[in-house]
Amino acid sequence: MRYVRFANILLMLLGVVAAFGGEANPWRGQYLYEADYGQNAGGIGMVVEYRLTINHAGKIPAAILQMQGYETDETIYCDVKYTSKSVSCFFKSYSDGQIKNAYGVVLYKPGQLLFTLDRPTVNGFTGLATHWHALKPDAIKLGGFRRLSPSKRY
């Protein structure tokens, strides 16, 4: 009788974990980086928006990076590795499943580290820092992602 009760409780707990997508991901949510590339010869502003969506643990793709703006419209699927203090995004493929971009060029290899986000604490305040690796926007002033409000839809 005890074993049956224990088995029922265990199955119920496993169902709760499965319903919430497995392991909790403290980085789940959306992040935004707006890269300012200045102005072109005609005086038009050249800005590219990098929107990172990190999904629930176990969801595929683990993260989606959308880059849209001046002469840019790409979506990259990423694998992620995270701890409570940092998350690293690795190239998986473009949204069409290919490793070549729209121009047929391989810019990143599968598994290549694109960037890492971490939460440094300075003077008692915790911020968000971006460490660029293979993906390096050549903006006028290289900045980093900021977190947008988390949403339940990820």
Short description:
The chain has 154 residues and is mostly beta strands. It contains one helix and ten strands; from the N terminus they run H-E-E-E-E-E-E-E-E-E-E.
Helix content: 10-25%
- Tell me the distance between the termini: 40 Å
- Gyration radius over CA: 19 Å
Which strand order does the major sheet show?
Answer: 9-6-5-4-3-2-1-10
**Order of helix and strand elements from N to C terminus:** HEEEEEEEEEE
Instruction: Return the average pLDDT rounded to an integer.
Output: 84
> Could you tell me the number of beta strands?
10
Structure notes:
This protein has 154 residues and is mainly beta. The chain has one domain. The strands form two sheets. It has an eight-stranded antiparallel beta sheet with strand order 9-6-5-4-3-2-1-10, with no helix packed on it. Strands 7-8 form a two-stranded antiparallel ribbon. The chain is globular. The N and C termini lie far apart (40 Å).
Task: Give the helices and strands, then pairings.
Layout: H1 2-19, E1 29-39, E2 45-54, E3 63-69, E4 72-82, E5 86-94, E6 113-118, E7 121-122, E8 125-126, E9 129-132, E10 146-147
Antiparallel strand pairs: 1-2, 1-10, 2-3, 3-4, 4-5, 5-6, 6-9, 7-8
Kindly list the characteristics that best describe this protein.
154 residues; mainly beta; disordered N terminus; eight-stranded antiparallel sheet; globular; 12% helix; two-stranded antiparallel ribbon; 42% strand; 1 helix
